[in-house]
Design goal:
The protein has 143 residues and is of the alpha/beta class. It has one domain: Response regulator (Rossmann fold), CATH 3.40.50.2300. It is built from 7 helices and 5 strands. It has a 5-stranded parallel β-sheet with strand order 2-1-3-4-5. Helix 1 packs across helix 6. The longest helix has 15 residues.
Length: 143
């Protein structure tokens, strides 16, 4: 790993947040994990507003879309602003959300993962996606 990642997790559910944190650790993804509980809080973090004036710019954003009340509105906002449009986004979603809602968004720096696929598969998948999206930061392979 070339340097520690700054990861921003957007997750309303504390249990899922802990699972994601453990999965990242087991996947060998080291860095600073910042957690916010809503899409609007995420935007304040990214814009360095309110309590987030000194927040670092994240290298990747992980969003649990299954539980966020704002849904795809947050994805639209992330892609609308030039200062956040290039930040890779990993969306955690179930199969229905992935196929019916996320399909138009899945390209470039936006990827989808299924948390329900089992922890070992999730660990492997999140490792692969982060290494694919950020090779200059974490290295060029997921070995």
């Amino acid at each position: 790993m070339n340097r520690a990642l700054n990861l921003l997790l957007v997750e309303e559910n504390d249990v899922d947040g802990k699972i994601i944190k453990v999965a990242l650790s087991k996947a060998g993804i080291q860095g600073n994990l910042f957690t916010v509980r809503s899409g609007w809080e995420c935007l304040r973090f990214l814009r360095k507003q309110d309590d987030y004036v000194s927040a670092p710019s994240p290298d990747v954003i992980i969003v649990d879309l299954n539980f966020l009340r704002e849904g795809t509105a947050q994805l639209d906002d992330l892609k609308a602003y030039t200062d956040t449009a290039g930040i890779p986004v990993i969306v955690l979603a179930d199969e229905y959300v992935e196929k019916k809602i996320l399909a138009p968004y899945l390209s470039g720096t936006l990827r989808s993962l299924r948390l329900q696929s089992g922890i070992d598969d999730f660990i492997s998948s999140i490792r692969k996606v982060i290494f694919d999206l950020l090779p200059d930061i974490v290295g060029s392979h997921a070995d």
